[in-house]
């Protein structure tokens, strides 16, 4: 009777493993939304816990069969053979479920990381857009134009590392067929805005550099003119002080 019960327990254990494999490992999952992916991660965590909890039952079966084999070698040998099959299948099931759980957790982590990088770069784009707007309607003063140019250039020096991460993370998920529609839409919107703002910012940078150069040249010309006028004024004042007749002066002084 003991052998019969153990044989029944082994059969039930094998049946449970077959059902677990069908439920957790053989279903085709399509993750088209973050909610579906998150639910799949939680389901696989529960599956891993469920499978690992059966470890106690497997150990009890193993101990009972060993005890029976010690008392009734003939019955125990047959059960030991069946037990080895169950143990192999159980270990394989554990490894596969652990692997799938780890994979899904990595995928979810990849998705969260992508969102974080998108948030960072979106904040940078907002800052860039703000700086570009600040370059409009500037007062016609050298300091104002110079400050606006330096402010814009400081934002444009933003490193490209985050955009590289966005591209790689997005492509990894899309290649795996995970959230591909959502990610493609997000990346397309981000890239379009990035290209538009970058080109606009660089155009404004070039325009400000040209404006600044023109203003500096104009200021230099005015400074030279003022120095020349000051020298001329000094000479004329000297002539007047000395009561020199105009016709005795050089032509330019006349």
Automatic annotation (TrEMBL):
Keywords: Coiled coil
SUPFAM superfamilies assigned to the protein according to its UniProt record, in alphabetical order: Spectrin repeat (SSF46966)
InterPro entries: Spectrin/alpha-actinin (IPR018159), Spectrin_repeat (IPR002017)
Entry superkingdom: Eukaryota
Residue ranges that the Swiss-Prot or TrEMBL entry lists as coiled coil: 3-64, 208-242
One Pfam family per UniProt: Spectrin
Protein name in the entry: UTRO protein
Organism: Pygoscelis papua (Gentoo penguin)
């Amino acid at each position: 009777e003991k052998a019969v019960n153990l044989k029944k327990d082994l059969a039930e254990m094998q049946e449970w493993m077959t059902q677990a494999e069908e439920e957790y490992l053989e279903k085709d999952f399509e993750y088209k939304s973050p909610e579906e992916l998150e639910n799949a991660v939680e389901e696989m965590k529960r599956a891993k816990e469920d499978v690992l909890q059966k470890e106690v039952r497997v150990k009890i079966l193993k101990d009972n069969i060993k005890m029976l084999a010690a008392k009734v070698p003939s019955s125990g040998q047959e059960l030991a053979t069946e037990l080895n099959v169950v143990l192999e299948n159980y270990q394989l099931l554990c490894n596969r479920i652990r692997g799938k759980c780890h994979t899904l957790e990595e995928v979810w982590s990849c998705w969260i990381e992508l969102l974080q990088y998108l948030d960072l770069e979106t904040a940078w784009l907002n800052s860039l857009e703000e700086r570009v707007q600040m370059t409009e309607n500037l007062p016609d003063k050298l300091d104002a134009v110079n400050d606006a140019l330096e402010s814009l250039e400081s934002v444009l020096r933003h490193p490209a590392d985050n955009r590289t991460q966005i591209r790689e993370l997005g492509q990894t998920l899309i290649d795996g067929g995970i959230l591909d529609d959502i990610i493609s839409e997000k990346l397309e919107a981000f890239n379009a805005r990035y290209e538009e703002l970058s080109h606009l910012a660089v155009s404004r940078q070039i325009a400000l550099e040209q404006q600044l150069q023109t203003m500096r040249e104009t200021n230099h010309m005015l400074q030279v003119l003022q120095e020349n006028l000051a020298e001329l004024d000094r000479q004329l004042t000297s002539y007047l002080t000395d009561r020199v007749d105009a016709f005795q002066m050089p032509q330019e002084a006349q």
